[in-house]
Specification:
The structure holds two protein chains of two kinds.
Chain A (H helix, E strand, L loop, with lengths): L2 E4 L3 E5 L4 E3 L1 E4 L6 E6 L5 E7 L5 E3 L5 E5 L4 E6 L8 E8 L5 E3 L3 E6 L1
Chain B lengths: L4 E3 L2 E4 L5 E6 L6 E7 L6 E7 L2 E4 L8 E4 L6 E5 L8 E9 L2 E4 L3 E5 L1
Parallel strand pairs in B: 2-11
Antiparallel strand pairs in B: 1-3, 3-8, 4-5, 4-9, 5-6, 7-8, 9-10, 9-11
Classes of the chains: A mainly beta, B mainly beta.
């Protein structure tokens, strides 16, 4: 069965430093993978998605993620954190039926 | 394009009362989903519709939750009777191919 594991429940960085949010997936086939962001009291916003094209995926707001099949990972990175990046981030895998399986989420704190 | 519309935005009810949520998906999106997001957790699928047929309702507590999608467009999710543990944000999403769009959700508080 498809699943995702977000390795950190909470990540704290200083403004201007790199961000790394880790995600491992489990899938019996080549999956589609997504990263979503959720700001407090706001809806889910798609950051980026991988659908078996280029393994390095660029998203919005300077985020990118690299699909590594050998490591079954899809980590999210950003070179320089901004205060507005503070939010909850979800790594998501989809099943063939279209159902999305969400990770538990990683809270990103950005310190001034 | 217009997004996924949900109402109400917030709802507070007492336990054992009933409540209904409404969702209007993006025009042309055949697949509609209802997710439950409990505080501090990722969203979990309750039910998935393809047009007006149910594809997956394996995680829907059918003794108290029901959902319908008449005419393959709008959908309603109902809880009757509500329990304290139903307090959560209920998210509606629609999709076409690999593109998913989420609504802003309905925050339900059961007291």
């Amino acid at each position: 069965a498809q699943s995702v594991t977000q390795l950190d429940s909470h990540v704290s960085v200083s403004e201007g430093t790199p961000v790394l949010l880790r995600c491992n997936y489990s899938s019996s086939y080549s999956p589609s993978l997504f990263w979503y962001v959720q700001h407090p009291n706001k809806g889910l916003q798609l950051l980026l998605k991988y659908t078996s094209a280029a393994t390095l995926v660029k998203g919005i707001n300077g985020f990118e993620a690299e699909f590594k099949k050998s490591e079954t990972s899809f980590h999210l990175t950003k070179p320089s954190a901004h205060m507005s990046d503070a939010a909850e981030y979800f790594c998501v895998v989809n099943r063939l039926s279209g159902k999305l399986i969400f990770g538990q989420g990683t809270t990103l704190q950005v310190k001034p | 394009e217009a997004g996924v519309a949900q109402s109400p935005r917030y709802k507070i009810i007492e336990k054992r009362q009933s409540v209904a949520f409404w969702c209007n998906p993006i025009s042309g999106h055949a697949t509609l989903y209802w997710y439950q997001q409990i505080l501090g957790q990722g969203p979990k699928l309750l039910i998935q519709f393809q047009n007006n047929g149910v594809v997956d309702d394996s995680q829907l507590p059918k003794d108290r939750f029901s959902a319908e999608r008449l005419k393959g467009v709008d959908s309603t999710l109902k809880i009757q009777p509500a329990k304290l543990e139903d307090s959560a944000v209920y998210l509606c999403a629609s999709s076409f191919r690999d593109g998913y769009t989420f609504g802003s959700g309905t925050r339900l508080t059961v007291v």
